[in-house]
Amino acid sequence: MRLRVALLAAASSVVPSVSAFGVAGHEIIATIAQIHLHPSVLPVLCDLLNIEPSDHSEATLRRQCHLAPIAVWADQQKGKMPWSAPMHYVGAVDDHPGSNCRYPGTDGWLGTKNINVLDAIQNVTGILARWSGADEHPKNGRTLLSPIAPRRTTSSRVEGQKPFAPRPAGPLEEQAFRFLAHFIGDMHQPLHLTGRDRGGNGAKVCFDNRETNLHSLWDTPLLTRLIRTVPPQYSRPLPDRGDLPIPSAQIEMALRRAIYDPFIRRVMWEGIESKWIHDIDGWLSCPGTTAPESQSESIFSVVTRAFSNPLTLPRALVNFVSSAAPSKGVEIIPDGPVVCPYAWSAPIHKLNCEYVWPAVFGYNGTDTEVDHEEDGIASCKKYPILDTQAYLAPLDDNLVLEKLVAQGGLRLAGLLNWLFATKHA
Description:
The chain is mainly alpha-helical. It is built from 16 helices and two strands. It has a two-stranded antiparallel sheet. A hairpin with a 2-residue loop joins strand 1 (204-207) and strand 2 (210-213). The model is unreliable at 1-19, 150-163, 290-297, 302-327 and 364-377 (pLDDT under 50).
């Protein structure tokens, strides 16, 4: 029951592939999510990870069942599942930061309908919701802000037993879970939301006297710079404050002695538990838009249905690929009342125009020639130099990258709590 479809390889030619948020970025988002998981979600997490904990206490589950190691699984599997590559990003027709910031604008989206990171988040969440019994229907009161309201279907669990679900997790649910952990990270890398220069992969830049490209810069070096410059007080556990919902011990149980642990403590202390504490409800909310009932069937639904009757797979795929043929201005409507990746990602896309694309690239469709020979810089002298105060100070002053990983972690935790939390913890 694995999510692989050979005929979807054609979809990978729609938009050139791009690399994902760096390993550290994905793992940081997953770790922030881990910190905020409801206790009743932890046994489900162990089940989906195929981990048998030494005991079923909350402390043991938090220490032994970690999201971070599977956060880049979807990138590692691209070679085996080429059909999934276009599901890591999305781009709008005529979007060209910073002259034309369109998301999507009047001409719609690039690529193929249903095969993009926004639809992918909705689709894999749907697979997990059907398994767990979670329901987006607004009448049940269950949201990312109130995840332990009643479910659509009832189930029970005795302390120490396997998760509540009506059947054990299979390969379909396990892979949907891994895709979800990764796609949420991709959505919080701004260059996964624009098609300009293949999401910045074609935009050469100079950083730390090394040639790279804008996408790679936002994947790793910018974050690495922040990790290396964390103040020394974050090398040890945070002090407990009685007015905060997350105790320091819970943060420490989610950490794995990684090089970015101090950075996570800093994001928690300076951002999530202080600067942004009153913004979090908005990060986890949806504007009330519901997906239309006529929305096309997703590829994950096609695959799921085919498992029950394999003889229907070839015809189902032919019909799906025919209906999703590439065209200018395809429609993407991934948002529901609880899960709304478009609404969450729209402010992230704006960062492309506000911070990501420096003016030196030019806004008329051609890059500006830059010559730094007089500065004595021999390497990458043809490209814009971005390790400058002009570029980095606005990112630092506004905690841009810190906020992105915080939003990604809290939204991933919110989704997992909404999918799996119960009232029994």
